[in-house]
Amino acid sequence: MNPDVIVVGLGAMGSAALYQLAKRGAAVHGIDRFSPPHEHGSSHGETRITRQAVGEGDAYVPLVLRSHEIWREIEAETGLALFDACGGLVFAGAGSQHPRKRRFLEDTMALARQHAIPHEVLGASELAYRFAQFILKGGERAYYEPGAGMLFPERCIFAQLDLARRNGAAMLLDEPVLAIEPEGGGVRVRTARAGYAAPSVIVTAGAWNAGLLGRGDLTIRRQVLTWFEAESPDEYAPGRFPVFIALHGADDHCYGFPIPPGTAGFKIATETYDEAPAVPEETRREVEEAESDAFYDRHVAGRLRGIARRRVKAKTCLYTISPDLGFVIERLPRDPRIVLVSACSGHGFKHSAAIGEGLAELVLDGRPRVPLDAFGSGRFARPG
Ligand SMILES: Cc1cc2nc3c(=O)[nH]c(=O)nc-3n(C[C@H](O)[C@H](O)[C@H](O)COP(=O)(O)OP(=O)(O)OC[C@H]3O[C@@H](n4cnc5c(N)ncnc54)[C@H](O)[C@@H]3O)c2cc1C
Predict the structure, then answer these.
(1) Rounded Cα gap, residues 260 and 263, in angstroms
(2) What domains can you pick out in the chain, each with its CATH number?
């Protein structure tokens, strides 16, 4: 029997959509080229930052607020720990700005006020007193949000796929989708093994979306996550240390995490837009020691106490970006029965639970409770 909906790609967005569809009683197939959670796409690496006052824009705030509720619902249902609200800090050195989001700190503060999100504004001396792990220069301005924290992405995906399966979803794993084509009254999904048809298809293939749907407006960027040795890991335990985004130097920035219990190394990263592979398979996956050394000199040395140069591990991960770095969530103009979710990299994970719920509502009754209209690609000129 044909399903009501097929979800192509079961990472952050797809696992959430599959779970929410199955929970609502829809007959649903989820297809993935690998067996998620895995390390080939955009959703691995142990932790993701989540913040409620998301400086990326007003339209994202309802998504993250609803996601926080859903993460807690899933935790209650599964007994798994998905979200540690260990607090989050955004701070800027005197004269430092985010390289691409110029008013990121100011916008974060304004959104917190607008949405009544509990927060504190800290000056340099209070920041130094509260979080002595940072070596400050003086003149820093900080935003602290106690309800921010870290998500555990592999566990979030596992939990949602598990719940989807328990609610009757069929899962077709290690089965790459080759084409998605209109067929009669529905849509046909052709894989390396078989063909499936459904009235609606949700495409959440992450970094593979561009190739699968021929979207020239989506590009991929290699990113690196590095874990360095902490001399006293307890100093960086959740509860003593928050997730953070630091704007420093001349328009430079990095972000990092407390060390979750049972893991090794202090994880820190930045965003880079230098390497632009056309397809995920062309991405350079290895991380040279020299690359980690250069990262350490730029973002860790003289900025964080007790974090040694010794690398514990490093991983690559893929960003998919749109021309304005915003999300793309839309029914395809060429066929509205196909819904695309893409270009969420850099800041998508925190919103994924509510996006999955919104996709289920959009496809089943046309009315997502959190509006998704702001994310159509019509806002920028789309080639092709
Ligand atoms: C380094 C890094 C750091 C980040 N940090 C944060 C953060 O701190 N906070 C935050 O909120 N967000 C963060 N993000 C962004 C967030 O992780 C991503 O937006 C999100 O994980 C993307 O999920 P996705 O479902 O679109 O892609 P993925 O999770 O990669 O899922 C895509 C899935 O589609 C499957 N697939 C692909 N092609 C096919 C095909 N042809 N057939 C079948 N299946 C297919 C893949 O196997 C994969 O499982 C970060 C991203 C990166 C890379």
Answers:
(1) 6
(2) 5-45+153-217+324-379 (3.50.50.60), 86-148+219-321 (3.30.9.10)
Query: Ligand 1 within 6 A of 349 CB?
Result: yes
Distance 41 CA to ligand 1 centre (A): 5
Contacts of residue 252, defined as CB under 8 A and 6 or more positions apart, other chains included, come to: 96, 99, 270, 298, 299
pLDDT tens series, the chain, 384 aa: 899 999 999 999 999 999 999 999 999 999 999 999 999 999 999 999 999 999 889 999 999 999 999 999 999 999 999 999 999 999 999 988 888 778 999 999 999 999 999 999 999 999 999 999 999 999 999 999 999 999 999 999 999 999 999 999 999 999 999 999 999 889 999 999 999 999 999 999 999 999 999 999 999 999 999 999 999 999 999 999 999 999 998 889 999 999 999 999 999 999 998 877 778 999 999 999 999 999 999 999 999 999 999 999 999 999 999 999 999 999 999 999 999 999 777 899 999 999 999 999 999 999 999 999 999 999 986 544
In angstroms, the CA 229 to CA 296 distance is 11
Ligand 1: nearest atom to the Cα of 255 = 8
**C-alpha 353 to ligand 1 mean position (Å):** 13
Alpha-helical regions (H) of 42-138: 61-78, 104-114, 124-130
